[in-house]
Amino acid sequence: MRRNIGVALQDAAIDPLMTGAELLALQAVLYGIPASALKKRSSELLERVGLTAAASRRVSTYSGGMRRRLDLALSLIHQPTVLFLDEPTTGLDPMSRLTLWEEVRRLNREGTTVMLTTQYLEEADQLADRIAIIDHGKIVREGKPADLKASVGAPTLIINTNTDQTEKAKTVLATFGDLRPGAEGALGVGLRGGAAQVTDVVRKLDEAGVYVQHLELNEPSLDDVFAEATGYRLEGADNAPSAGDNGDEEPKKKKRRGRK
């Protein structure tokens, strides 16, 4: 089993005192790769992840993106058929993230099955053929990205208004569709009649004396799928259901706890 799988964890456990080439050689020994094949395989992987010029440098001199790419190379040294990636792009700059995305796509095209965990829904939408949304240890939605987004149906209209007008705005919006969770300070509604209803919404809000600071219409996204499936958008949000809640009872009030 170990020869068939590769694993790249969220926090790469890489010895900072060793060079990239030395770490690849060590990983090859651990997987029983003969010395005759090591040089060719290491060179291919270093070139593939863009680290050929940095192969002889100590890992302590690498940037975060370089370490993540080296960790990917280490997980591929034995040519696994299944690759597990745990939040591979967390903390990376935009260019490093795009580079890693392209490498994941290339691996998949070449026949490697990739199991990716991520909190970036855009990343899942870009890379995955099939997605499972997990909430409190249970799969609450599963399917192809396009099918999941289509299941949400109506586009989401997002508005921002004055705090003292929030309840009045909710009452108006509720007449046009189901209210949807939005970012802090924003209200969302799934427009049953689609984009054509935007004008009617604005007119009704104006008649109700609601001042709209900002308005935008978004096509269904995985954010909407996540919000509909879990009832909240942010991990640890106050309106998140308690673990084990089946939706039949009111969620228990939880104390706010920060992430370390």
Description:
- The longest helix is centred in the middle third of the chain and has 16 residues, at 94-109.
- It contains nine helices and nine strands.
- It is α/β, with parallel strands linked by helices and 260 residues long.
- Strand 2 (82-86), helix 4 and strand 3 (113-117) form a beta-alpha-beta unit.
- Mean pLDDT is 84; it is low at 234-238 and 240-260.
- The relative contact order is 0.10.
- Helix 6 packs across helix 9.
- The strands form three sheets. Strands 7-8-6-9 form a four-stranded antiparallel beta sheet, sandwiched between helices.
Task: Provide a compact summary of the structure.
The chain is built from nine helices and nine strands.
* Helix content, binned percent: 25-40%
Estimate the strand proportion. 15-25%
Q: Give me the Rg, rounded.
A: 24 Å
Please mark out the parts with pLDDT under 50 across 5 or more consecutive residues, or reply none.
234-238, 240-260
Mean pLDDT: 84
In the sheet with the most strands, the strands line up as 7-8-6-9
Q: Write down the overall geometry.
A: elongated
Query: What is the structural class?
Result: alpha/beta
Beta strand count = 9
What is the succession of H and E elements?
A: EHHHEHEHEEHEHEEHEH
Give the count of helical stretches: 9
The biggest beta sheet is recorded as:
4 strands, antiparallel
- How far is the first residue's CA from the last residue's CA? 33 Å
